[in-house]
Structures are given as structure tokens and as C-alpha cells.
Fold each of these.
Amino acid sequence: MPDARVQAAIDHWAPRFVQAGVDYNDFVRTTARIERWEDWLDGWCAVGDEHASLAREAEAARREQTAGEAWLRAAVAYHFGKFVWVLDAARARAAADRAVAALADGHRLLRTGVERIETPEAIGNLRLPAAERPPLVLLIPGLDSTKEEFFRLEELFLARGMATLSIDGPGQGETGYAQPIRHDYEVAVAAALDALAGRDDVDLDRVGALGVSLGGYYAPRAGAFEPRLKAVAGISGAYDFGEIWDSLPPLTRETFTVKSGARDEDEARTLPGRLSLAGVLDRLDGPALFITGKLDRLIPWEQTERGALEAPGGIFVCFEDGNHVCANIPYKVRPLAADWLREQLG
């Protein structure tokens, strides 16, 4: 019998894992043999190791496409093993490092031309489409999401002629080891764009951003303060994280506590109120798309709607059948966000 946390993961996470590249059969087999949350990390790292072994075998046989695809599966297995798993920082860091390395090997073998962008405030993967001076879209993860989760999402934008820069900002992934969560995420966005200044292979006059979950707060917040963002979209973003703190699942509160650098949950409880769009959105001059699902059990859909109502150029789309980040209907939501940003950026 799985404990409450494992059961919650089984009940809520399958769509999210699958849309990021975890094979559904892996999800079923792996979660079936994990009964304690303490064993979650090791269970998923074992899956990552299986795919890493397949990748090495395929590369040795010079089957580079197969090897690259196997490395992508390994990357998301390692990533989701440490996802909101904050029981042992050293072990979680080791799994995260393996996810980063596996994704890099996937890019290498698939010859995607990815380029690593690194600043103290943001570390990201830049990918370019087969287009001259394309617009750029920053992909912003949420709480304990990372750029390693975004390979498939990037493909939607690349197919539409847009460059992508998936970033880890403060409190996220590689950047989060030195930088705790901060409410003013525009600092990370500005640093990432500064790192690209002077390039002629992307059009930095046509830059947008898409954020998911907590990134759905970060993207409009950044758009309000960073004039280089011409259009922003957020999926399942909170309007005021502090207002919903007590209703958040224990895993989410524990992860926020760790990623914010708080000493304990009592101290962490005082911090989410800073993550609020109140008094911010009147500065957001450009178009802004706010998407959510009526079945979201993490961020109430009304929170996302409030952002759309306050933003001068806000557009609100709510899917009756969508869960958190609408991970159960990615074929509706992700193309919508990609098409909308393509239209706004020209």
C-alpha cells in the first residue's frame, strides 16, 4: 500500500510526466513498486539508469538517433526522481546533475545545436530553428521544475520558427543551488537577455515568455518590469501565492521552504506573500495570455483569472477539463500558447 505522498504522486502526476517525455509504461511500472516516499528518488533513478544503459549500447552501435532518444528518457526520469523530493539535498543534487548530463548527451547525439547560456541569475539552453533571425521565447519553469523538463515544449516553438531559451532561475535547477526563490524574477530574465545582447542569430526586438505553474506568476511579473518582453503567457499561474499557502499540498510547501532558503515552514510561511501580482499588472503594457484548467487542484483557476482581469492586455482562457498546467490536455494548451506567441511576435 503506497503511503499518502506516493499515492498523491500517482493520482496527480501521470499526465505531467508523460507530456515531458516519460513513457507511460515506465510511470505505471515504477510507481507500482514504490510504496514509501523515501524510496521515490531511487526508484526513478533506477529507471534513468536503464535508459542510460540503452543509450550507451545504441551509441556504441553507432545508432545515434536511438541513443539520443534514450538519453532524453533518462534525463526526465532523473529529473522527476528529485522533483519536490527534498529529503536529502545531496542525493537530490546528484540526481539533478545526472539529468543535466543526460539531456546534454541527448542534444549532442540528436545534433540539436543547443547552446548553454550561463549567468549567476539564470542558466539556460538556447535552441534555434531553421529560420533567419527568429523571434525568441523564454520558457520559464515553476516550483522545482527545470529546463530539463522542456525538450518537448521547445519543439513546438521551434517548429513554428521561434528560438527558445529554457532557463533555470532563482530557486530552480542549477541556478537554485546558489540563488533562492525570489519574487522579482525579472532579474533572471534580464540577465538571460543581457547574455544574448549583440547576437545576430536571434531577433532580440521580438522576445516573449511562457511560464508554467509558478512560472505562470513569473512570466507576467517579468513582463511588467522587463521592457524587452513584448508578449507573455502563463499557464496555471498564481495571482497571490500567499493567499493559497494553507491549501497547498504538503510536498509543495516543503519544497518551497527548501527552495526559498527558509529555516523551516514557519519562516517560509512569511515569504509567499511577496509572490503577488497585486499592484504590478498595471505596468504590463504588452499582450498577456493567462491559461488555466477548471480542474486545477493546486492553483485555483480563479487565481489565474485575477491576473487576466487586472492586466491591461490580458486574455483569459480556462479549459473545463484541464488540470494543473493542463498537463492532461497538452494537445490543446501547448499549441495554443505557441501559436499565440508566434502571432504576437510577428
Amino acid sequence: MKILVYGAGAVGQAIGGMLAADGHSVDFIIRERYIQGIKAFGLSITGIFGDYTIDSAKLGLFPSLEPVRGKSYDYILITTKSYDTGEAVKELVKIDKGGFVVVSMQNGCGNIETITEQFGDERSLAARVITGFVIERPGLVRITVTADSIHIGGNIEGEIPKSAVKLAEAINKAGLPCSATPFINRDLLAKLLYNSALNPLGAALGVHYGVLGDDPHSRSIMNAVIEEVFAVITAMGKRTHWNSAEEYEEFFYHKQIPATYNHRSSMLQDLEMGKRTEVDDLTGYVSSKGAQYGIPTPVCDTMSEIIRFLEWNGG
């Protein structure tokens, strides 16, 4: 298959690199500093799913879409931050020949809706990625932890698009556990629960997930966030995989946190590098939807403002 990874940070480089190692044609839209590192050393992916090395000559490395305007692709994987989704879609329209399927592989909710507005249901997919990826240096990505396999699906509840099955099979064969699902929106809401509970608090306190799960004070805050997120999901008329906040908390503390115990969130890493975080697409998203549906979200409101303060003041 021919694949373009748009906004290839840690997630995009790992998934795209492993697909390239398995024989697929992969191009990256990627920052210049990473291009130089990959050209010098090749691209290596290491960690819990094994070791992979791809010669840079087998990858297309481009800082913008301009050099690929005449190329055709089967899939375009968007791996930017969620706040860049709208701009990514505007850019992809410029190379659209009516063939490729666009896949959001991002945090937060609302991304697949943005993609679908432009490309329609048949050409739009979302992936729930709940795995830790870290760029250790340009050209080297480590996969550190995973709470579950990658899930890929379409925006229509109960249906599994053939394009989702094909891509999931390719990613799975390349070495990353992956499957197609008819309930991707439930998965994305489940990830919203997980990320909203852990990422802002872990970033604000500068600790990994396990510390938050072990301490009764941080558990109290996370429980309050989970309850608010669950109330907002219910008010929106949507559902995820659990019938109550309490049921999810049981899974969260006994399954998810142990599986990702030592992980430091991308939000914490963004603050440490002085970068903008995705808080507006996590607890900020919950706050905005809470206001829309009349659901109080005081803890999510507070966590969002703390992260914005840290962004404004350089972490």
C-alpha cells in the first residue's frame, strides 16, 4: 500500500516506520530536524514490540505537501496534535484526487467529525491509539507501554468499513497489535476518560501514571474527573464501554494504570519542551460540552486552567 503520514511525530514515525519495514511505500510530512536525523541514521523503532530499522532511502521525507502533490495514496494517517486537525484537512484537500482514505490517529474527540465533513464517511476513519511512543533522538523512536491494541473504525456506529479492516490487518502484520471495530466512537470516548483523568494531573504534578494511581489524594481528583466526563458523555446521548463511572474506575485502576504504570504523558513532555498541550481537546473538551449541555464540570475546568497557566508560564 501507499501511505502518507501527515505530521509524523513519535506516533507517526513508529507506525509509518513499521509499515515501511513490512514493505509498504511510506512518505512522511515531518519536521526538518527529524528529516536530518533520519537521513543520517535511518529510522529505528525499538521497545516492547521488537526492533525495526528502515533505511532512509526507503522513506519519503518531506517538510510540506508541495513535493507530493502529484502522488497518489491509499491512506493518509493524520498524527498531528488535535488542535491542528482543521489545518491538516485544509492542506490535504489540495492533493485530493478522490482516492485516499484519511485516518485520524490522534488524541481527543471531534477529529473524525472534522475529517468526515470534508471527505465523507466512506473516506474517513479514526484510530484509538493507547500506546506510549517517545522520540529518544531524531531517528530513534521507543514504544514504551500499551494499554490495548490499536482500534480502527468509521464514524457510522455498528459498521466496519472495508478500508478499516485492510489498514488494521496491515498494521497488525507489521508488528503493532491492531484490529477493526464497529464502535470506534465508543473507543474514543473511553480514551477521553483515560486521558482526561491522567494527563492534566500528571502534567501539573510532573509525575508518571503509577504515582497518580498509588496515592489516595490524586485518586480522589481522578475519580472526580471521571465522574464529570461520564456525566457529559451521558448528557450528549452517547455511550462508551461501561455503564457507570464506578464501573470504569474499577477497570481504570486494575487494568489500565498497571499496564502503563511508568508512562509520562505527552502533555507532561509538551510542558517540559515549552510546547502547546492538547488540554483543550481533553478536560477542556469536557468543560465545553458540559457548558453546552448544562453539566457542571468544576474539576475539569480547574485542571484545564492549571495546564493553561503552565503553558503560559513556560511549564
Amino acid sequence: MFGGIYRGKTVWLSGHTGFKGAWLSRWLLDLGAKVVGFSLAPEPKSLFTKLELSGRLDHQIGDIRNLEAVRKSIHAANPDFVFHLAAQPLVRLSYEIPVETYATNVMGTIHVLEALRSLKNPAAAVMVTTDKCYENREWLHAYREEDSMGGYDPYSSSKGMAELAINSYRRSYFKNHAVTVASARAGNVIGGGDWALDRIVPDCIRALTSGQAIPVRNKIASRPWQHVLEPLSGYLALGWALSKVSDPRHSAFQSAFNFGPRLDSNRTVADLVVEILKSWPGQWSDQSDPHALHEATLLNLATDKAFHLLQWSPVWNFSETVKQTVVWYQQNADPAHHSAEQLSQLTSSQIKTYSLTARTMALPWSLL
């Protein structure tokens, strides 16, 4: 897959102990890459810990807010590819720790860019932000890469700032450089192994496993729900495209890309909960609070650019996305099937299933 470009190559990955980082680590290892991870220590219940990934890659504990630590790690790795995922990723938590959120999401991104600026050998760098980087006007239509950056809450605005910094560095330092740089914006990601607080799927699983009703605080909020493998395939496809750039001054790939689901996967929170309950029976309760902290109600991404330039498109529809997610959590909840080896096999199996479906769609990244 991906033209075999990752086999035998060194990939520096920040945030490898996080939810998306653990899935990307597993996929890169399956692709034959040498992964150098740089992140805060994993939580005891994290997917990274459950899959026992620390012994399968170069596992480095470090803080993205420390420029010298980032520079030292990247220069020692001398990577062929860089995927920057490290972040403070929670909207509601950003209200409580705004300084840490900005320091991590803005300055952390700048630290990676600054370290890349002094690399001499070619490398392809994908800087990951979020769909919430846009100035959300609660439009019904989808946001495009050229739309204005913004953000109401500290998390969203920090990601908008990160995008501005990436664009500035790209134009100021990487026009004629061995390192090629792009940014990637993804929608609301779900999948097995996410245990974060104040996220609807982990909230559902915690309630279902304890036999309680699922608390739903904003049932009408609409989001572009996608399985974690969707944006990860986009990141990997973008890295592949960047690695083939012959003249960085004239590359359309050195820009921002949206990676979102099919339009019919833009559903309300209530729709998502009902879909989960089809595979794992239970109940839910409406706990809407008119005085709750602000969160966007409408959000959708246009992915035309990724389709035309990368020939990328989403693979799983909404029901399959939810089904695969619930299957992972159900096996994790079964004492007879939740060993590290079994969960690792399940994770790799879902990656393989996803890739085989992509192959039936003739998506270039999936073809042998």
C-alpha cells in the first residue's frame, strides 16, 4: 500500500501515545516502517498501552512544548517522514486549561516546524490540526481549505493559529527546502480504544459497560463522524504525495487538506447514539444544558481537494463506521478476548478490512 513508500523508512511521529497516534503507529508498523514516537507518557488504559506498542517502536517520552527536546529527537531520527499529531485535543478541557492548550497546540507545532527547518535531508511532513480550525458560522454547507481560520473556544482557536503558523513557515522557509510540508484537517474521529473524557463514543461505552443510561448533553449537534482509519489513510496518502514532490516551489501538495467522511455521515449526536445501540443494546438520556460551555452545532468538511489531487475518498459509510467501532469495544470488554495480542490482532484486522474495501473502490493508496 501507498506505493510501498513507507517500508524500511524512518517515520517521526509526535503524539504516538494518543488515540490516533496509536492507530497510526500500528498501521505504520504493519507497513514496515521504523517508527520513532515522541509524546507524553501514555495513560494506563490507553490504546497505546493496551496494544503494548512501546516495545515495537522507538518510544520516546517528551513534551512538544520543549523546543530543544523536539529538535534533538527529530535530528537524531533524521526521518524520511514526519507526522505531527501531538495536541491538547479536547474542547471542554481547553476552557479549563487555555494556556496549556495554546502552548501545546500552537507553540508545539512551531517547535516541530523549527526543528524541521534545520534538517538537511529530504523529508515529508504532515502537520495535523482539526476541522474546528475554521471560523464556524454554523453554515449548512461544507468548509473548504480556503475558508477563514477562527475558533470560538481555546481549543478551536489554537488550531486555527497553528494552521496560520504552518502556512507562514511553509511560505517563509520551505519554498526551496529539502523538507516538504502540508497540513491535514479531519472531522470528528471515532474508533476502538478512545477513552477520552467528554467524547460521546467513550461516554457511550462507559455507560453501556456499567449498565447505565448514556448521558447526552447536546443531542442536536451535527458532526462529520468518521472512523479513525479514514483520516489516517489521508495522512499517509498525503505523506506519499509529498515524498514525490520534485520542485517544492510549484507543488499543490504543500498546502492544507480536509479529510472528512461521506456527506451522509454528517449526523447528529442522537443519530450516533441510536446507531451504537443497534449493536450494543441500552438506553440514553437527554441531559442538554442551556448554560453549558459553547460548542459548535453545525460542522461539515468539503473534501473535493483531497479527491482530485490525492485521489482520496472515505471508505466506510456511517453504519459500518459505528459497527467497526462497537466491535472493537465489545472485544475489549470480553475478558476472554482482550489480551494485548488479541487486541493487536483485532486492530490490524480492522486496518486490513478497511484497506481491502478501499481496494475494491480502486483507491490508489490501497492498490498493490
